[in-house]
Amino acid sequence: MRPTLVLTTTCFALLASAAIPCAAQGVTPAGATDTTNDPVQTLVNRLDLERYKNTIKGLAQFGDRRQGTKRNRDAVDWIEAQLKQYGCQNVERITYQYNPPEAAGRRGARPPATSPKGRGYAGNGPGGSRIFSDMREHGANNDSLAQPDPKIRAIDAEPSKPGERQEVICMKVGTKYPNEMYIIGGHMDGIGWGQAVNDDASGSAIVMELARILSMPDVTTERSIRFALWNNEETGLDGAKAYVAQRGPMQGKERPAGSGKYPEPKWLGMVQHDMMMVDHGPPTPDGKLSPEQRPGADINIEFASTSKFADDAMKLAFFWRAANEKYATDYPAAVGPHMTNTDSDPFKDLVPALSLRENERGSQIGGNWDPTHHQPTDVLTTFTDKDFMLGLTSAQTTLGAIGRLTGATVRK
Ligand SMILES: [Zn+2]
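Above: query sequence and zinc ion SMILES. Below: predicted holo structure tokens.
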């Protein structure tokens, strides 16, 4: 049977053209918000730019964290230790095998950075998008010498080997509906001989910061929340696919019977955070990163209009956008229909699924709006506080939305 999005079955208050469940604390059925007594605002206020940056730096110490290496396994250990320290419940590892056929690369070769058809050529981009320029993203860097920093080059030196892989998950267990949950994800692996700071320490740090804040002892939620730090995104979403294969059949089952415990609550939705900091606009004419975050920078919330749950995913996307208008301090959000190339993909025909990004994946990143993507320039020294703040704004947006959706409260 088709699971019903909680959003569509709860009583509604219309706020900024999107449906907000009025069962959530602090919202009256008429839509008027009690700002002073909104516990979700209290949670959002606990986000902090320096803490977010420190979590990104913690991940960056393991270089590009390429899957199948010691630096990747060390990063998994570090993430697990952090989540335990935050008091996140049910910290677990998903274990799976990754044995690619010989010489398998990423998801196929990328088009050249500039279209051979010349300037002004608009063509098809990833996820059913169109790219209205002749710029195209570069393929992933595989040249160690392209990394000018010898320390980073040394950290990234070990090549990937096939075999066993692990990724870490944990949970906030709901008080009223422990058998239902939303999944919040980011991917901890990277490529390209940098530090995988933007792709995707920036999204992983959002997941970790939300796990930290929602695990605080004075916070309760009615529904459960899964925090997932996917591995093997860069090889083709293999960590998320392993989770779907192993955990999908466990959904909503009480184990042991009568215990009130649900190791895998029923999935209500999945929201991925991937590349959260760089919206500098189109690249310079020579294909380099434009120097400043553009004044019109925004967060792009994408759903897949071709997915089985397109309508519910669209509603969820506008719910996220409304949460941005209510809770975000620095940057707005826009909704688009071409979610693609990230870990929400394996979920999109099972539950409503979204991705949050710095840019639209297809039309903008496909058009080389982020020249640090999979390049040696994806390192801490490339980014300024304006970039980190775009990531924190996404954290505010998702914390606001998930706080409302799960009925979060803070004990006074
Ligand atoms: Zn990514």
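The longest helix spans residues 385-405.
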